[in-house]
Structure to design on (454 residues):
């Protein structure tokens, strides 16, 4: 305990990174408990097709966000002017303008989306859900400042409190409305509450409208590559739901979403730790500068990967039993989806810690090349997989796609001096054994997935 306390105390980079990681893990754990409890209650109040409908709404909300992202957060975290009030206020002004534009865009795409998926209700749901993007545009840059300096305790408390508000309002509204509107309205309520709490409880000066040309030029120059990267990221992360939405019924898509929701716990936690701690670490301790920096980052990389693989192992082996325990018969096929999704995320876990090195050094162009490669290969693999083998093929293709873009990951990591072949080889061997054993153990349940394809 004395050794742990010693490492956590102080304002050094290691102490702040460790404290930040502890807060992220604690916050993530609490967040997932709330999400799971809410999910279990909502599945008993609503039908599977409601979850399928909301999955489509969220795909397009996230798409709007990512198609308009100019990297305000990463810019603040990596810029030398990241603590300059003029720079921060200019960034906030851009963010507010973007929020208004996103809401207008949500109104514009609503009818085409409804027609494409032959679901008239989407024409009403999308514009109302888009109001949440307008609200989020006013979030203060004090949030990014806290993340820049790895001061994550208060941020995590606010986010957990917001999630509790979202969960409570969703359950009450689901009981009263018995429709997908419960998700939409609860999202607006929680977004407004989160904005208020950020404004009241985060330290620092309040933002005001400001447009400094130098700051705007830096933000936009860095952000143009982030914009292209996030467009690619949207296709990479949400392509499965966009494509499967055309092949599955709404209730089957809802079942898929439940399975993906459960299997994504380890990956989401690992991503949160990597994205919130590695940019400051890479910025202050570039691995290419010294062997000591490289070795310290190797220790953190192994820690993140081994911990994540350990969690994935649980979901990969016991996904079917977990779904049988927690959900009713309407969701029984979600168990096999949990197993396959967990196995296919193993390659993603192994390469998770590399791309942040490019952002930390300001090399947004190469970060875009990696993101674009991921998007092209993932969408192609999904289309081929779903055509050849239905939902099973779509799930397996996601793992194959990550393996296929590994050379691009190595190219980026080597440019930053961050590539660790020993880590990749050892963790790949362990991941392959976990994946093959889990698929063999749950083979009968996996083969039954063919009933979910139209």
């Amino acid at each position: 305990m004395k050794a742990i306390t010693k490492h956590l105390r102080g304002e050094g980079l290691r102490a702040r990174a460790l404290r930040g990681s502890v807060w992220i893990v604690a916050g993530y754990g609490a967040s997932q408990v709330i999400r799971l409890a809410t999910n279990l209650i909502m599945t008993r109040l609503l039908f599977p097709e409601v979850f399928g409908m909301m999955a489509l709404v969220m795909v397009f909300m996230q798409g709007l966000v990512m198609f308009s992202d100019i990297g305000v957060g990463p810019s603040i975290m990596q810029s030398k002017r990241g603590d300059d009030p003029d720079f921060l206020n200019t960034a906030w002004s851009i963010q507010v303008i973007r929020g208004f534009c996103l809401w207008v865009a949500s109104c514009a795409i609503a009818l085409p989306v409804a027609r494409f998926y032959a679901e008239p209700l989407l024409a009403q749901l999308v514009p109302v859900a888009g109001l949440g993007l307008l609200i989020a545009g006013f979030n203060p840059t004090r949030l990014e400042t806290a993340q820049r300096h790895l001061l994550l305790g208060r941020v995590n408390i606010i986010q957990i409190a917001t999630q509790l508000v979202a969960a409570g309002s969703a359950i009450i509204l689901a009981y009263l409305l018995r429709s997908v509107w419960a998700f939409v309205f609860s999202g607006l309520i929680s977004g407004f509450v989160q904005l208020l709490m950020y404004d009241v409880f985060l330290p620092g000066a309040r933002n005001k409208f400001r447009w400094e040309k130098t700051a705007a030029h830096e933000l936009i120059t860095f952000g143009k590559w982030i914009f292209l990267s996030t467009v690619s990221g949207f296709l990479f992360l949400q392509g499965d739901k966009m494509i499967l939405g055309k092949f599955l019924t709404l209730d089957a898509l809802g079942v898929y979403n439940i399975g993906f929701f459960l299997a994504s716990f380890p990956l989401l936690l690992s991503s949160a730790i990597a994205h919130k701690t590695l940019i400051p670490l890479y910025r202050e301790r570039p691995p290419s500068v010294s062997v000591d920096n490289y070795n310290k980052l190797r220790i953190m990389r192994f820690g993140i990967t081994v911990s994540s693989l350990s969690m994935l192992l649980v979901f990969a082996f016991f996904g079917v039993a977990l779904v049988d325990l927690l959900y009713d018969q309407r969701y029984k096929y979600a168990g096999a989806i949990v197993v396959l999704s967990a196995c296919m995320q193993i390659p993603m876990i192994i390469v998770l810690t590399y791309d942040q090195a490019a952002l930390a050094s300001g090399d947004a162009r190469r970060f875009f090349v990696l993101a674009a490669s991921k998007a092209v290969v993932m969408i192609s693999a999904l289309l081929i997989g779903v055509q050849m083998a239905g939902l099973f093929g779509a799930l397996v293709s996601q793992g194959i796609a990550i393996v296929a873009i590994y050379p691009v990951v190595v190219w980026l990591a080597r440019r930053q001096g961050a590539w660790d072949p020993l880590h990749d080889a050892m963790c790949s061997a362990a991941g392959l054994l976990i994946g093959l054993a889990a698929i063999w153990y749950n083979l009968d349940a996996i083969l039954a997935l063919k009933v979910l394809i139209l």
